[in-house]
Amino acid sequence: MKILTKENASELLGGKSLDTFVSQLSSRLRLVGDIYSIPHDSGAKTALSRVFEYLLLRNSSVCVYVSGWGVWGSSENLDLFYGYRRSFGENRPLIEAPVHLFEPTEKDTFISILCMVFYFVWDAWVFDVEGKTLVIISHDGWLEVRTDDDEAGKEIATELGKYGMPLLISPTKLR
């Protein structure tokens, strides 16, 4: 895992600002299914993290951009999060280095960071660096998945269905 500043991530993405890149992905990619409700159970959140590892980290580098934290402080454990990052030599706070880049061989590390995002009820954008798939995770307990690949979309919907991911509501009603 490499931990990047937003500026480092911009360089990785060809010079576009990180926030512009994820916003454009969200607009360009098609919604898979609907808006999904994130399960409350920690075991289900762990399983969900493993599903996304399986679906996203197979053939491409993937970023987890933690874009929001501190909303539900009682759910957070920043000491745990920073301790985990320190084990990789990272001492910068999340506000300075919010992007985590994973290679396909870093499955366990990806799962661990994504679990913490779910457990701590944070906002995050999870995307492959090629810009083919985007997962938006909200501190309000929902997520959406977007892709430009019909086959990948079917597989994602099938896998989320296996794990009992209930559809929340139509995106037009949410926004």
Tell me what the structure shows.
- It is a single chain.
- By secondary structure, this protein is an alpha+beta fold.
- The protein has one domain.
- The chain is 41% helix and 20% strand.
- The chain has helices spanning 6-12, 18-28, 42-56, 78-86, 107-119, 150-162, 171-174, and strands spanning 2-4, 30-31, 36-37, 62-68, 99-102, 123-128, 133-137, 142-147.
- Strands 1, 2, 3, 4, 5, 6, 7 and 8 form an 8-stranded antiparallel β-sheet that branches.
- 31% of the residues are buried.
- Residues 170-175 have low confidence and may be disordered.
Name some characteristics of this structure.
41% helix, eight-stranded antiparallel β-sheet, 175 residues, 7 helices, alpha+beta, disordered C terminus
Brief write-up:
With 175 residues, the protein is an alpha+beta fold. Helices cover 41% and strands 20% of the residues.
Domains (count): 1
Distance between the termini: 34 Å
Determine the structural class based on helices, strands and strand pairing.
Answer: alpha+beta
Q: Mean pLDDT across all residues, rounded?
A: 91
Q: Report low-confidence residues grouped into runs of 5 or more.
A: 170-175
Which shape, going by the Cα principal axes?
Answer: globular
Rg, Cα atoms, Å? 15 Å
Given the structure, what is the number of helices?
7
- Percent range for β-strand residues: 15-25%
- SSE run: EHHEEHEHEHEEEHH
Count of β-strands: 8
Largest sheet, in brief, is:
8 strands, antiparallel
Name the helicity range: 40-55%
